[in-house]
């Protein structure tokens, strides 16, 4: 099965609108000759429309980092899937561990957010991962299986045709610690067979599974060499376009 490699940058709470446009513009320049991989950046919601405009007619796509599951209403401080789509996003990160850890995101809200995203025509990137403690207690698969099955429980095969899954061990995010090649290989293989059990072989074969957690130019090639790794979700190392391009062009 030919899955198009996908490298995504998560800019978290970094960069003003102007700084975001500057970095995005530089990244687009560096990607001008790119056919593969597919590239996406997720700036803050405030920068999103500016970045989307700056990236029009370039190979670099835009995503958002979070959404509210309601369409509209009295939800001070929140933004809806429709607003994100109208601002020019194609993708949406859902269930990032920082949202689960600091903002009370649960599998239940993740599921509702995926539904809202799909209804608005956004492609969800469902983020899952175990904490250090959960890994040490040998609960990694238990945790991941629950996050995937609860997050996706309301959906049918057709709805999930554009789903992207991102495995990000919490202990590897922003810590400089990367999961070992063996750990990543095992988990990604497990996740693909989980998708097959829950949905179908075809969906499992088609779904891109990204790895995230301290991905950098030095380790991306080995990670991308793993059979079931179809891309990377990159935080810190995506903030500088001239650094990020070395991840994007991991094959050169
Ligand atoms: P990191 O973040 O690359 O800085 O570890 C990854 C992420 O949180 O998506």
Question: What does this protein structure show overall?
Answer:
This protein is an alpha/beta fold. It has one domain: Aldolase class I (TIM Barrel), CATH 3.20.20.70. It contains 11 helices and 8 strands. It has helices at residues 17-30, 48-54, 81-86, 97-102, 107-120, 132-136, 140-151, 181-198, 201-206, 220-224, 241-248; strands at residues 6-10, 38-42, 60-64, 91-94, 123-128, 164-167, 208-212, 231-234. Strands 1-2-3-4-5-6-7-8 form an 8-stranded parallel barrel, surrounded by 6 helices. 2-phosphoglycolic acid (PGA) binds at residues 10, 168, 173-174, 212-215, 233-237. The site of 2-phosphoglycolic acid has 13 residues, from β8.
Structure summary:
The protein has 11 helices and 8 strands. The protein has 252 residues and is α/β, with parallel strands linked by helices.
Model regions low in confidence, pLDDT < 50 over at least 5 residues: none
Instruction: Give the averaged pLDDT, no decimals.
Output: 97
For the record, the CATH architecture stands as Alpha-Beta Barrel
- Please tell me what the overall shape is: globular
Topology (elements, then pairings):
Layout: E1 6-10, H1 17-30, E2 38-42, H2 48-54, E3 60-64, H3 81-86, E4 91-94, H4 97-102, H5 107-120, E5 123-128, H6 132-136, H7 140-151, E6 164-167, H8 181-198, H9 201-206, E7 208-212, H10 220-224, E8 231-234, H11 241-248
Parallel strand pairs: 1-2, 1-8, 2-3, 3-4, 4-5, 5-6, 6-7, 7-8
The structure holds 2-phosphoglycolic acid.
Primary descriptors:
TIM Barrel, single chain, 11 helices, alpha/beta, binds 2-phosphoglycolic acid, eight-stranded parallel barrel, 252 residues
């Amino acid at each position: 099965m030919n899955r198009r490699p996908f490298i995504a940058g998560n800019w978290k709470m970094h960069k003003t609108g102007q700084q975001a446009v500057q970095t995005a513009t530089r990244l687009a320049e560096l990607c001008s000759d790119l056919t593969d991989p597919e590239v996406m950046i997720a700036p803050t919601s405030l920068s999103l429309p500016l970045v989307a405009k700056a990236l029009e007619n370039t190979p670099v796509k835009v995503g958002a980092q979070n959404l509210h599951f309601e369409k509209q209403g009295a939800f001070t401080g929140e933004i809806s899937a429709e607003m994100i789509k109208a601002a020019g996003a194609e993708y949406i990160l859902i269930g990032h561990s920082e949202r689960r850890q600091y903002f009370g995101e649960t599998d239940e809200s993740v599921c509702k957010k995926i539904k809202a995203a799909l209804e608005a025509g956004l492609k969800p990137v469902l983020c899952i991962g175990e904490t250090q403690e959960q890994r040490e207690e040998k609960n990694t698969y238990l945790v991941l299986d629950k996050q995937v099955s609860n997050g996706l429980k309301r959906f049918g095969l057709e709805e999930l045709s554009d789903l992207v899954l991102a495995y990000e061990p919490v202990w590897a995010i922003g810590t400089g610690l990367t999961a070992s090649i063996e750990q990543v290989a095992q988990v990604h293989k497990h996740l693909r067979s989980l998708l097959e059990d829950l949905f179908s072989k075809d969906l499992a074969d088609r779904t891109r599974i990204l790895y995230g957690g301290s991905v950098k130019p030095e380790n991306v090639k080995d990670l991308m060499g793993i059979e079931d790794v179809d891309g990377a979700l990159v935080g810190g190392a995506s903030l500088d376009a001239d650094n990020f391009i070395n991840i994007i062009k991991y094959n050169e």
